Amino acid sequence: MSKFAPAKSKETLNLIIDIGNTMAKVALFDGDQMVEMLTDSNESLECLSSLCRDYPVEQGIVATVIDLNEQVLSQLSDLTFPLLWLDHRTPLPVVNLYETPETLGYDRMAAVVGANDRFPGRDILVIDAGTCITYEFIDAKGQYHGGNISPGMQMRFKALHRQTGRLPLVSADGRRLQMGRDTETAIRAGVLKGIEYEITGYIDAMRHKYPELLVFLTGGDEFSFDTNVKSIIFADRFLVLKGLNRILNYNNGKI
After folding, report:
1. Which one from 18, 30, 107, 123 is the annotated catalytic residue?
2. Domains of the chain (ranges, CATH numbers)
3. Which of 62, 175, 209, 240 is the most buried (most CB within 10 A)?
4. Could you tell me the pTM of the whole model?
5. Ramachandran region of residue 213, left (φ > 0), alpha (ψ -120 to 50) or beta?
């Protein structure tokens, strides 16, 4: 559980429900200020009833990348305020140029919306390092051009173990070397340095075309970057939640 400062007023709040592949995040916003954030099982949402009992919620948004079970669907249907279910038909405060919007993960679009809301009129690359690593680009005109998807950190460790006969399952915790001295450190360095070089490669290529590019890093995995890269990255673990809140407000006339 992660908590923030209590709401400054008794104004009604926005409920943001972000249901991912491994967990759910449930947040409350007073305007654009996050006042509470909880993590929960994506199969139960046990925190939902107490959260809605303790706070005056006016409206909510649900975004999910999985099929919800009957328990969660029942909990959501019991809520006494209107819910916006995010899908490819939901109006957005940006222009979506993706050719197959019905296949676009909501989290990818929400992260782009969150970044664009913070820095409108700028070219932005959003990197979300979670279960997968995604790279999304929105230009200074507010046009989302699309992005790329690659395996996330845990997926890479698991793939090396499961797709080979003898390589062990290694975690990110442990001795980190530039070049591995044994199998464990070789796998760890290969995965972590590979991700770092992948990310810096994307940034360098995009900055060559868009010199004033801003870069946002979000998601659950943390990486180390050299000084030059750090200077152009805005780290925001809650970018998707903020983007969902922006989409909800946009659809309720709170531009």
Report:
1. 107
2. 1-85 (3.30.420.40), 87-255 (3.30.420.40)
3. 240
4. 0.87
5. beta
* Dihedral sign from CA coordinates of 19, 20, 26, 27: negative
How many CA atoms lie within 13 Å of 71's alpha carbon, on the beta-carbon side?
8
Query: What is the pLDDT at residue 46?
Result: 86
Question: What is the DSSP pairing of strand 2-3 with strand 33-40?
Answer: antiparallel
β-bridge pairing 95-96 and 57-64: unpaired
Which token pair is 43?
């199969």
For residues 196-228, one letter each, b for 16 or more C-beta atoms within 10 angstroms of the residue's C-beta and e for the rest, the string is eebbeebbeebeeebeebbbbbbbbbebebeee
| Mean local confidence (pLDDT), 170-179 | 94
107 carries an active-site annotation: yes
Residues in the chain: 255
